[in-house]
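User: My advisor, Dr. K., asked me to get a structural model of this assembly before our group meeting. I'm new to this, so sorry if the format is off. These are the inputs:
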Amino acid sequence: MEASGSDGRQSITFPLLRGQKALVTGANSGIGKATAIGLGQVGADVVVNYVAGKDAAEEVVREIEDLGVHAYAHEADVSKEDQVVDMVARMVEEFGTIDVMVANAGLQRDAPISDMTLDQWHKVLDVNLSGQFLCAREAAKEFLRRGVVPEVSRSAGKIICMSSVHQIIPWSGHVNYAASKGGVEMLMATLAQELGPHRIRVNAVAPGAIRTPINRSAWDTPEAEAALLRLIPYQRVGDPVDIANAVAVLASDLLDYVVGTTVYVDGGMTLFPGFATGG
Ligand code: NAD
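Assistant: The format is fine. Below is the predicted structure of the whole assembly, which you can bring to the meeting.
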């Protein structure tokens, strides 16, 4: 492994996933974009899923192709069953199979409980939880069909669920989001138990506060950033590449014995920082 990155951030360049085929949902923005490029950097061919923003998706594809691997963009809403089925079927047709599914797409529709509409509740659960179920199911079918190909990987496939620290930290005003991520934890753990005997590894990555469009208001003024840093023992807001690096290593055979785990990538946000000086 070596450090690289034009922005001075560390990213992994060792070909940990050479010859593997990865699909990243919500890959034209934020964490998904960094992850799609990061998987390309470690040798994977990548499908860049997006639901809106074709130009941004094509730009990610160009960045990945510049690394010397294959990529294409695919429009699909992860909460729509037929679209997820078609997306994975096309990938099997074009790339031959799928080795890594990164179920990353997610959104927020925030409101206090008394104002939250059923539509806001359903939208977040549909995308953040049902979307991950559909993506995991379609990937699992192909992993089960193909089985282990030892020259490619020790496992028959990897599913990585993008969760959040809010799978365990309650979050007032965001009950739909926190409930969706709590659900992702049990989706992940149950699938890991069910699919483990088939040599399919299911894990999750739980980001803390990462600088992306989803949470811009939490970091884009000095006051907001100062308030956020009070929740982060490591005293920096995360970058999308912090998550991309974790996904790349977790998807690789280096971590072949890691099954059913959530990797928190949060600068210590889950360490109850409020107790650092009291309690
Ligand atoms: P983002 O808004 O930059 O990216 C979200 C992506 O999901 C976008 O590309 C968006 O178009 C896509 N998306 C939304 N609905 C979709 C749908 N129906 N079908 C397909 N794609 C869809 O935000 P991000 O921070 O990069 O978020 C990525 C993931 O990381 C989400 O699951 C989010 O919950 C999680 N996360 C983010 C943070 C953070 O601090 N940024 C923290 C914890 C967890």
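One thing worth pointing out at the meeting: Residues 118-146 form the longest helix (29 residues).

User: Perfect, thanks a lot.
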